[in-house]
Design brief:
Layout: E1 3-6, H1 11-21, E2 27-31, H2 46-50, E3 54-57, H3 71-81, E4 88-92, E5 101-104, E6 107-110, H4 111-117, E7 121-128, H5 136-145, E8 149-154, H6 159-173
Parallel strand pairs: 1-2, 2-3, 3-4, 4-7, 7-8
Antiparallel strand pairs: 5-6
Length: 174
């Protein structure tokens, strides 16, 4: 599957980019960390307008995004936007379980459990823009064992790193 990452500042611009590229992709990722402040509320309806599976993401600066908020506040944003009919929500692998417990009025909600109850699949992503960590296979296996969809974004520094990635891919397919 090919996924188009949408990083425009408005929902209208993201939809324009999607329409220009629709025939090439089978899904899209909406990066709400790139949206202008007034656009966040419009993101809830994005999956209906896009008419394809959409991944919801709010990426931290340390992971290549633009969101400067603490994890708890970032997860609260994801929770509000995830009220839409998203197919997936991407949460970084190191986000603590306590940060996935959010307040809605007087109620405490387990964000992860609420997504699963609505049939929204969870992607747990790992980012390393310095290289390929030696324990990458273990990281991916741990994420997959929890039932999450593992995703990695790494920066190979050599042909050996690339070969390692292909080996991990082959081992995980078995």
């Amino acid at each position: 599957m090919l996924c188009l990452t949408l990083t425009e500042s408005t929902i209208a611009k993201d939809l324009e980019v999607l329409e220009r590229n629709r025939r090439f992709v089978s899904m899209s990722e909406l990066r709400v960390d790139c949206l202008a402040s007034g656009e966040m509320e419009k993101a809830v309806d994005f999956p209906k307008k896009a008419a394809m599976p959409i991944i919801l993401t709010c990426r931290r600066i340390s992971d290549g995004g633009k969101c400067e908020l603490a994890d708890k506040a970032r997860i609260e944003i994801l929770s509000r936007v995830a009220e839409g009919s998203f197919a997936y929500v991407d949460i970084e692998d190191d986000v603590k379980r306590r940060d996935l417990k959010i307040k809605r009025g007087e109620q405490s909600i387990d964000f992860e459990a609420s997504l699963k109850a609505r049939g929204i699949r969870i992607i747990r992503s790992f980012h390393d823009f310095e290289g390929v960590p030696a324990d990458l296979f273990g990281r991916i296996s741990k994420l997959a064992a929890r039932g999450d969809i593992p995703k990695v974004a790494v920066m190979p520094q050599s042909m050996l790193d690339v070969i390692t990635l292909f080996r991990i891919h082959d081992e995980l397919r078995e």
